[in-house]
Amino acid sequence: MRVYIFLCLMCWARSESKRPCLEFSQLSVKDSFRDLFVPKMEIFLMMYTRNNPNCAEPLFEQGNSLNVNFNTNKKTVWLIHGYRPMGSTPAWLQNFLRILLTQDDMNVIVVDWNRGATTFIYNRAVKNTRKVAMSLSKCIQNLLKHGASLDNFHFIGVSLGAHISGFVGKLFQGQLGRITGLDPAGPKFSGRPSNGRLDYTDAKFVDVIHSDTNGLGIKEPLGHIDFYPNGGKKQPGCPKSIFSGIEFIKCDHQRAVYLFMAALETNCNFISFPCHSYKAYKTGSCVDCAGFKTKSCPRLGYQAELWKDVLKERIDRSSLRTSVFLDTTGTNPFCNHHFACIILYLKKVRKYFSIQAHAYQRKYKMPSSVKCNNLFVN
User: Fold this and answer.
1) Where is the signal peptide (predicted)?
2) What is the pLDDT of residues 113-162, one digit of tens each?
3) Edge-to-edge strands, sheet with 225-229
4) Are 140 and 134 in contact (CB under 8 A)?
């Protein structure tokens, strides 16, 4: 009996010491309706590391002390979602977390601003992006006091989250290490000046993937490098009819997220070619990678940072922003292979063979009416 009681006490002590995992805010359409009359704004920072890959913990403990699992010497990825009128958890979130932590031993912070993004009033969510950025800047200031470095921060923002990342970058005078914009939101941001949206000056390196430029995304280039898969408009594999429901609206927009994940998780090399338009790229006019020196043409995704120096050099030298294009398939992992066939017509080569033909004609005393040079195709 005493042994039984002892074991029960041990189990109780363990359950008391193990705190519950943080969960992404579970909201619904009801919350969007409620927001029409009683708007609310809440931000939660959910921290994951390889020590707690499946159980989110708070970034800061009571008294503003830093969570012991956060390593200030490692890279920190800030993952920020976008507009969520239905209030649901992003379908890609858990897989994205898994892939990131598999890729590198890092800190991952999910910025849960669902209570602020869940609203039927899109303009309200847009205004909330500035509030989120201000709140994050205070958290970052606290991290800096604990020895963290802005250079180790990589913000990955989806849709409105991309512009939140840009606003954070502006508050730190562009000293963030990197910002990745995954199809930055277009409505209310297209045509805005650089201080009103994500811009390449917001971090030391800014890469952007555009996948829905004629819908929910933004068309104009924003980063040091802007990737336009399949031209950046319609993505293969996405529904073409409005009768497909919500997928018709969000599939193209979210493709940027899934392409970035695929680039991390698979061996696909999403090689992209600099060009002034997708039409020119499709005609094979843009297959020259010499401008990128020994690195060749850049690759979409996590690896894009390898081209940071040469891309910044292009901007510093000639204010040249880099837009690149690539084609993908319509199903995960979206791999596609590019082949370029180049046929060169060389006049000197033709002239050489023509001379040889006339020499052959003279050697064997062929009549002059035989036009040997006509045997060679232009």
Assistant:
1) 1-17
2) 999 999 999 999 999 999 999 999 999 999 999 999 999 999 999 999 99
3) 57-58, 44-48, 107-112, 76-80, 153-158, 178-182, 206-209, 225-229, 322-326, 273-274
4) no
Helices (H) and strands (E) in the chain, counts: 10, 10
Q: How confident is the model at residue 371 (pLDDT cuts 50, 70, 90)?
A: very low
- % residues pLDDT > 90 (the chain): 71
DSSP structure string for 290-307: GGGGGG-S-BSSGGGGGG
User: Residue 261: what are its φ and ψ, rounded to 5°?
Assistant: -65, -40
Parse the chain into domains and list their residue ranges.
19-326, 343-378
Active-site residue list: 159, 183, 253
Instruction: Tally the C-alpha atoms within 13 A of residue 202's C-alpha that lie toward its C-beta.
Output: 32
Phi, psi of 174 (to 5 degrees): 75, 20
Strand, helix or coil for residue 265:
helix
Within 10 A of 123 (CB to CB), how many other CB atoms are there?
10
Q: Quick check: 45 and 110 in contact, CB under 8 A?
A: yes
* DSSP helix/strand/coil, 223: coil
* Superfamily, domain 19-326: Alpha/Beta hydrolase fold, catalytic domain (3.40.50.1820)
